[in-house]
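Practice problem 4.
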């Protein structure tokens, strides 16, 4: 894989027509936060608010994500947040295999540029895309997986917590484990500028 710099990545993504999702988009939603963070959080794909504003996790699920980050002492400016697919699937449906595949190289480029030590998979779509189709979020969440020197934590998508309050307690435990892992790896952001 030839490595892009950020400018090239943005240029390629903003003009991308590699899958059908490009037809419905208002904005390509690339990422937000600190591109040098040691922690990356990956969701499924932009929803309506994200498509309009051009940034990931700015709607209701994003507000809950901000609260969960705040609970472990982090602001979104200190982490890097993106999605498996960068364009909104119609009616917020789960992105299809061909759409995920078309976007995967862009995510690989982002990971290569950010070089996180910890990747948080928010929900089933990123968990399966990054850790394997055999993964089941309810069964496998909360368990660390080390892959090519990066620690992966599958946890619930914040939208799932909005639908089912019983998931909040386990998700909270996962975020505590994320904080502990960042501290253990000496990767916990020290200041907002880190
Ligand atoms: N849900 C996601 O998976 N990603 C977003 O950016 C917003 C909602």
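Answer key:
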């Amino acid at each position: 894989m030839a490595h892009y710099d950020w400018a090239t990545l943005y240029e390629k993504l903003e003009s991308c027509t590699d899958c059908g999702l490009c037809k419905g988009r208002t904005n390509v939603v690339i990422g937000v936060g600190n591109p040098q963070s040691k922690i990356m959080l990956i969701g499924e794909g932009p929803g309506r608010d994200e498509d309009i504003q051009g940034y990931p996790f700015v709607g209701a699920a994003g507000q809950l994500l901000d609260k969960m980050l705040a609970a472990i002492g982090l602001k979104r400016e200190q982490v890097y947040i993106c999605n498996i697919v960068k364009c909104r699937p119609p009616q917020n449906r789960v992105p299809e295999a061909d759409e995920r595949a078309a976007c995967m190289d862009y995510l690989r480029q982002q990971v290569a540029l950010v070089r996180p030590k910890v990747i948080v998979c928010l929900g089933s779509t990123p968990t399966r895309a990054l850790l394997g189709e055999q993964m089941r979020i309810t069964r496998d969440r909360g368990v660390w997986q080390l892959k090519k020197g990066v620690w992966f934590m599958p946890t619930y998508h914040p939208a799932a917590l909005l639908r089912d309050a019983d998931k909040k307690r386990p998700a909270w435990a996962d975020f505590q484990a994320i904080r502990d892992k960042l501290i253990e790896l000496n990767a916990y952001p020290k200041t907002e500028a880190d």
